[in-house]
User: Fold Hexosyltransferase from Brassica cretica.
Amino acid sequence: MVLDGIVSSPLRRHQSLKKQWEDLGSCSTVINRHRYLLTALLLLAFLCTVYLYFAVTLGSRHSSCYGLTRKDKAVCQFQHVQAISKGKLKFF
Assistant:
């Protein structure tokens, strides 16, 4: 019947998923098949980590509030927030 191929029972779907899982093989097989993708993913994660490290450590030095004490720094940052909300943004 035509509907048998379209509508399947949950039992048939479970067997299908089990067969697909068995076809994958072991973890080493999956790693070998996707070695290029995993290498690219690791490289991307490493580069993002390096970028974030330098963005955090060097990014604060270029701020006009760099080197100020707690209270003065808070006042400086508050003034920046007010300037941004008014549409006046200072870059340097």
Q: What stands out?
A: The chain has a mean pLDDT of 76.
